[in-house]
Fold this sequence. Notes:
It is a single chain. This protein has 418 residues and is an alpha+beta fold. The protein has 16 helices and 13 strands. The strands form four sheets. Strands 6, 7, 8 and 9 form a four-stranded antiparallel sheet that branches. It has a four-stranded mixed sheet with strand order 11-10-12-13, with helices on both faces.
Amino acid sequence: xxxxxxxxxxxxxxxxxxxxxxxxxxxxxxxxxxxxxxxxxxxxxxxxxxxxxxxxxxxxxxxxxxxxxxxxxxxxxxxxxxxxxxxxxxxxxxxxxxxxxxxxxxxxxxxxxxxxxxxxxxxxxxxxxxxxxxxxxxxxxxxxxxxxxxxxxxxxxxxxxxxxxxxxxxxxxxxxxxxxxxxxxxxxxxxxxxxxxxxxxxxxxxxxxxxxxxxxxxxxxxxxxxxxxxxxxxxxxxxxxxxxxxxxxxxxxxxxxxxxxxxxxxxxxxxxxxxxxxxxxxxxxxxxxxxxxxxxxxxxxxxxxxxxxxxxxxxxxxxxxxxxxxxxxxxxxxxxxxxxxxxxxxxxxxxxxxxxxxxxxxxxxxxxxxxxxxxxxxxxxxxxxxxxxxxxxxxxxxxxxxxxxxxxxxxxxxxxxx
Length: 418
């Protein structure tokens, strides 16, 4: 039985994982789970100002899980004829599975449950959607669990990245809007004199940001750029990365958890393993590798290499503790396909090219777009000197800024990337 406490960082990581599995497999189950997580976060963990809250508690009225559990009698009274569907789908019993009540869970495949109920899977899902609406409406009258409404930069960066990616993959404008509002809030409210702060609550930001705050926000801004193609998000990501290189770099390579402006300790901490959240060092290395792909600047790659190389032995000995670091190494070793697109997103031909690049699961691809020809250097160097071919939306696929011949059709783009 999972614990009832809901952490923002868990929802951010799981939603992105389910999104990626759906991209990789096409199994709509994973898309549904991802969507339900996003909808939950937007409904219950989003601040009016645009950031995302940290946690909802497990307890209400002094009882663990009271807000979330149900009795069989309660469902029968509330749902009427639909109770049979709910009871079968969620394995509800009179005895319950948690202190005399039921934690709703799905004990069988949808196909099995639909057959038992003499329904199609589609009809089952339609009935369940209506049932869930009734249960949500009823549950609002219960005493809610406590809410930790503190906003943490690192965890918000994770949710920003997941929502931004989901917005383009699922073509969901509400996710895009939420991601933009989150980024604007973080950059406006959690910076002071150009430096990030760690937390925000009741209108006040405080505590100098740690490496994981910078690294996860950089990740979120890079994802948001690739969803909106608004250059300001890339510019902010690059500015923050440069701040990390200037203020967090360790003398022997890699990064400290704290900047040189933090309170001076006997030894500056360096957290290299993943814990409940990914290692800030690993996330920073991944961000630097991707920034190198956008800019062609070797200093970013060199900084990533310096952070990763000393961990080779530890990764071999304890790989389970270095999942995000191994992911960064994979990105560094395999390399990144750099995709530059020249075309207006209001043109259906451009949109089709972007979809070929971004709809499949392509963790080793980054994309930049200019709506018009770029006859000179650009703020995003990957776009510099890129022009359309024959007046048509055009795609350049490159490695280390060495490009294949430009192409203008989705099939040709697929061939280059696959």
